[in-house]
Amino acid sequence: MSNDFSFCPKCGKPAVNYTDNKKWVCSSCGFTLYNNVAASATLIITDTDGSIIFEKRAKEPKRGFLTMPGGFIDLDESAEEACRRECLEETGIEPDSIEYVASFPNTYIYKDITYKTCDTFFAARFDSLKKEGKKLTDLMKKQETEVQEFVNIKIETPQDLDNLDIAFESHAKAIKVWLKNRGK
Questions:
Q1: Which residues of 74-89 are buried (b: 16+ CB within 10 A; e: fewer)?
Q2: Which uninterrupted H or E stretch holds 80?
Q3: What is the CB neighbour count within 10 angstroms for residue 92?
Q4: Which of 9, 41, 104, 105 is a plausible cystine mate for 79, CB 3.0–4.6 Å?
């Protein structure tokens, strides 16, 4: 992976080299820019019937593919805080509680830039909303810029994921861990 820079962002000279598969170094002024991993947080949400609630992506990358509520973690924000914020932004509802499931590396290509990410996953509980007896998807309000629609899909075995157009491999891996943990 290399996102090539033609010029140093500090001195402006064309002397930047990608080294050690993790940083750019300017041979002219010594400026170093590390290729750090971006962190994301995603929620696995089940509806009252036990199906997983997916979102169809409304934008690139992977527009039209299935994903779950989540996104990049902001500066000075924990993964848990990011889950709550992203869920509220994308669905209009906030979980009562969340529980860590797993994390996986991912590659996220956006506007010709390759980002290496660490995707964290949490299972969300909405007990207070489920007590009302309504489906969560009936209470959700999609964020138009992020979500085309909500889709409920019953996932009971890892094989149930095989024919789905899931946007990111890390999401499928997290669901498999969630399924395994649920079966304890």
A1: eeeeebbebbbbbbee
A2: helix 79-91
A3: 12
A4: 41
